[in-house]
Design a protein that fits this description.
Largest sheet: 3 strands, parallel
Distance between the termini: 30 Å
Oligomer: single chain
Helix content: 40-55%
Order of helices and strands: EHEHEHEHEHHH
Number of strands: 5
Shape: globular
Number of helices: 7
Length: about 160
């Protein structure tokens, strides 16, 4: 939690599909909820977002089933007036061909499609902030897996 970005996570029908994978290492402060709706914008999450400062937020989305849950969540958030980023190297699908179609659809709808590294640097805005060295080290440490994810998932 270098940049102290709030984290909101949902599971899709966890009783049938399982919990959030432990590899994500969600921070203890993360909002977590189970849902059956395909969009994350369930009442509990809407309430949690409403409790944060400001009405329009910049929200980055990662997740699976880019053409279903990610798409519906991004479009719902956009309709609510938020600036939505979908991190292309952080979304996937059981059917690989769905990813590019979903990303093109979202881009056409005005959602910002970017990569995790690009989004991190956009959040920082300036190398002079105290967190820069930690973020730069993280980017360097994960550059190979990020490169692989970009090459695999970012096919628009």
């Amino acid at each position: 939690a270098i940049l102290n970005v709030p984290v909101y996570a949902t599971t899709q029908n966890a009783a049938r599909l399982g919990p959030i994978c432990s590899e994500l290492s969600l921070p203890p402060s993360a909002f977590q909820a189970d849902k059956t709706a395909f969009s994350m914008m369930i009442p509990a999450l809407q309430s949690a977002l409403d409790d944060t400062q400001g009405t329009s937020k910049q929200i980055a989305i990662v997740g699976i089933e880019s053409h279903i849950c990610v798409t519906q969540t991004a479009l719902d958030l956009q309709k609510m007036g938020h600036h939505v980023y979908v991190l292309a190297d952080g979304v996937s699908s059981c059917n690989e061909g769905e990813v590019g179609i979903a990303l093109r659809r979202l881009a056409h709808a005005g959602v910002t499609i970017t990569t995790s590294e690009s989004w991190l640097y956009e959040c920082m805005r300036d190398a002079n902030i105290p967190e820069f060295k930690q973020i730069a080290a993280l980017v360097k440490e994960t550059k190979e897996t990020t490169r692989e994810a970009v090459q695999t998932l970012c096919k628009m």
